[in-house]
Design goal:
Blueprint lengths: L2 H25 L10 H27 L25 H17 L2 H38 L10
Helix pairs in contact: 1-2, 1-3, 2-3, 3-4
């Protein structure tokens, strides 16, 4: 199976759970969408987040790195192009805004709390597991990449 197809399967299961299934469970139905006022800002966050996630996952990991965002099928080579030049975790910068945008679209405090918990747990996962694993896998190349490229706040 190609890296693009494997990434698609991962995307449907993982980000799909957090950004499609979970909001549906919490809010009930799509009829609860509010497309006025802050809902428009929420819609913009969703669109921007989806675009950033797709760029990082498909263009970055699947096509450039020949792997997927799944830890059991990581990229074969270190991806440092595209959005990875600005920040080390662009896919996390993609999913979290989608979740926050949905909280605005649905005017849901529960979704905002879930998004904040997701963001915090993702940061812990990156710091405690992902970054040490990347250091082991890519060694000096990853260390050299980390020096100019920040982990969380993009450098433009």
């Amino acid at each position: 199976m190609s890296p693009v197809l494997r990434t698609l399967v991962f995307t449907v299961i993982m980000p799909g759970f957090w950004t499609v299934l979970l909001p549906y469970w919490v809010t009930g139905t799509p009829a609860g969408l509010k497309l006025r006022g802050v809902g428009l800002a929420g819609g913009a966050l969703v669109v921007a987040g989806v675009a950033l996630y797709l760029l990082g996952a498909f263009w970055g990991f699947a096509l450039r790195g020949q792997g997927t965002p799944a830890r059991i099928d990581p990229p074969k080579r270190l991806v440092i192009e595209g959005p990875y030049r600005l920040v080390r975790n662009p896919m996390h910068w993609g999913v979290t805004p989608v979740m926050m945008g949905e909280a605005l679209l649905f005017r849901s405090v529960a979704l905002a709390e879930i998004a904040a918990a997701f963001c915090a747990s993702t940061m812990l996962f990156v710091l405690l597991y992902e970054e040490p694993a990347l250091r082991r896998a890519f060694g000096a190349q990853y260390e050299q990449y980390c020096r100019p490229v920040p982990c969380w706040i993009p450098r433009f």
